[in-house]
Amino acid sequence: QVQLVESGGGVVQPGRSLRLSCAASGFTFSSYALHWVRQAPGKGLEWVVVISNDGSNKHLADSVKGRLTISRDNSKNTVYLQMNSLRPEDTAVYYCAKDYGSGSYYPIFDCWGQGTLVTVSS
Amino acid sequence: DMVMTQSPATLSVSPGERATLSCRASQSVLNNLAWYQQKPGQAPRLLIYGASTRATGIPARFSGSGSGTDFTLTISSLQSEDFAVYYCQQYNTWPLTFGGGTKVEIK
């Protein structure tokens, strides 16, 4: 079955960096775009970033431009989120989510990981 | 950015009753609107896309309607497992945006 497993979360000081990973299985990884969606404690969902199936195209939310970078390794079925210059407002559960479309964007999320918590605090 | 507004914030409903949730977009999103359900401690689950198409495995008591700027999610007869938070999401334009959510609670 389709599975996404995030890792790499933890407690980090403001201004520091963290890299999240999302390992995928159960589908043809290289055919699908992957997204990161975050949820601050007790709050709603916020879309963060997407990378196309081949890694050639990306879109980011304005709130993270210049600080968060997405990448993928199709040989490892893994997508990464490099988070730099972290701020307290980046504190959230970060979910990896699979795009619905095969070969091109259909940006709804038909499979989600369990999430990994990032806490930015001194 | 496209602003998605959901109402009400909280909906109190008795089991077996009908629930009607609303989502409004600040500009037309055509029919590029999805609905998700999230239970405490869990990841969201896709319910509806294309404003009215049920995702795989979603029971027929869930239905979506609307186009342009006004959308509705209807749960025809609430079951115990339906008490959760529901989010709408537009995918007509980047950046993708979600509504603030409607919590459906037991009356």
Descriptive report:
The complex is a heterodimer of chains A (122) and B (107). Helix content of chain A is 0%, strand content 54%. With 122 residues, chain A is mainly β. In chain A, a hairpin with a 4-residue loop joins strand 7 and strand 8. Chain B has 107 residues and is mostly beta strands. Chain B is 0% helix and 50% strand. Chain B contains no helices and 11 strands. In chain B, the strands form 2 sheets. In chain B, strands 2, 4, 5, 6, 9, 10 and 11 form a 7-stranded mixed beta sheet that branches. In chain B, strands 1-3-8-7 form a 4-stranded antiparallel beta sheet, with no helix packed on it. The chains are: A mainly beta (122), B mainly beta (107). Chain A binds chain B through residues 35, 44-47, 50, 59-62, 95, 100, 106-110, 112-115, and chain B through 1, 34, 36, 38, 43-46, 49, 55-56, 87, 89, 91, 94-101.
Overall, the morphology of chain A is globular
Mean pLDDT across every amino acid position of chain B: 97
Distance between the termini of chain A: 40 Å
The N- to C-terminal Cα distance of chain B equals 35 Å
What structural category do the secondary elements of chain A indicate?
mainly beta
Largest interface: A-B, 21 and 22 residues
Assembly state (oligomeric): heterodimer
* Rounded radius of gyration of chain A (Å): 13 Å
Topology order of chain B in helix (H) and strand (E) letters: EEEEEEEEEEE
- Give the proportion of residues in helices of chain A: under 10%
Number of helices of chain A: 0
The total beta strand count of chain A reads 11
Helix run count of chain B = 0
Largest sheet of chain B: 7 strands, mixed
User: What's the overall average pLDDT of chain A, rounded?
Assistant: 97
Low-confidence stretches of chain B: none
Order of H and E elements of chain A: EEEEEEEEEEE
